[in-house]
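Retro notes, structure queue

What went well: the backlog is down to a handful. What didn't: a couple of records were mislabeled last round, so from now on we paste the full input next to the output in the thread. Example, using Glutamate-1-semialdehyde 2,1-aminomutase from Nitrosomonas mobilis:
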Amino acid sequence: MTITNQQLFERSQQFIPGGVNSPVRAFKSVGGTPVFFQRGQGAYFWDVEGKSYIDYVGSWGPLILGHAHPAVVKVVQEAVQNGMSFGAPTAAELEMAELLCTLLPSIEQVRLVSSGTEAGMSAIRLARGFTGRSRIIKFEGCYHGHDDALLVKAGSGALTFGNPSSAGVPAETVSHTLVLDYNDVAGLEKAFSELGNEIAAVIVEPIAGNMNLIKADPEFLAVLRKLCTQHGSLLVLDEVMTGFRVGLQCAQGIYGIQPDLTILGKVIGGGMPMAAFGGRRDVMQCLAPLGPVYQAGTLSGNPVAVAAGLETLRQIQTEGFFEKLSTRTRQLTDGLVAVARKYGVRFSAQSEGGMFGIYFGENPPKTFTEVMACDREAFNRFFHAMLAEGIYFAPSSFEAGFVSSTHGDAEIEKTLNAAERVFEQGL
Ligand SMILES: N[C@H](C=O)CCC(=O)O
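Corresponding output:
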């Protein structure tokens, strides 16, 4: 007899808070029982009841090559056979560092860590250590992991559950964090004119995938770069989600912007726990053992994660990879918009590379306020109707979606046919 999602969820709640190891998995905002997965291959994964789904979450971004890509599986198996962890330098981690520095010219030196949270937290500490200043700026609805200093008016799960600023974060800790509106140039100019010389760093998602998906106005990022330079503050681009997901040069290449520091994660680990922070050599050299800023990790540069990440980065450098991925993603978003229009549903969508946002609103939002104005109830009904059709979108209207290189014409067609049935029946 097969076990059901419901049975596993009931048992999980006894032993794991909320039954999940990361809140956004709990289906709290969309309601219902989370799906427990047991196997994935390419664009599909299967739950414990044997039902298959086309996956548009891709483990929240890393799986740009789909589930269990044969080349990635092979290098992981080889790496495991050679030892799971050394806690000492390896040639492979050097290869990864050289590759990241080559692909992203703004990165002169890089350090590997195990999660996006660690990368964000380390970049902020480094920026403070380098500048000797405490104050930082972030933007409402952007999420940079769950480090105390950055968990203020955050996006992603924090926003989903209506607690964008977490309990347990001391007021003194976040008294140095100034939160501004995304894409608001005037607000930025005002903050710098008042406090410019106190600001250690500004951290921003150039394409904010943690409040569905909002694109920064090029002018907003250009002004941000200029103000940081003028005031000696460091610009930290959070490319954990966009890094090697929107294109080979990441969002910084698309916008033509040179950050002082970049944080990366997701795709660079190929589905394994790996992230990185890197940037200007003079800044990075403030890190221990060279400088006074301490940062460390037992599993940093883990050889198995590095193997998966290196192979993933090799695959995405194949000629035409991002052109194909972008076309495929647009095929999905354009198709969904066309079907919604046909049935008079207020719906819009946009994408960048293999990342997309869908909105129950007339136009793609440009600000946090516009994100909040989208019809969340309509999204929840859509989510469940599509889930029943075997299409797995992120279980939150505040999360971006992801397409992999294994999503083909057949998967897009199945998805659009399902959306047609859902919109035809009415939400
Ligand atoms: N948006 C989050 C990460 O980027 C979603 C993943 C999580 O919180 O578990």
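Agreed that this is the format going forward. Reviewer comment attached to the example: The chain is about 40% helix and 15% strand.
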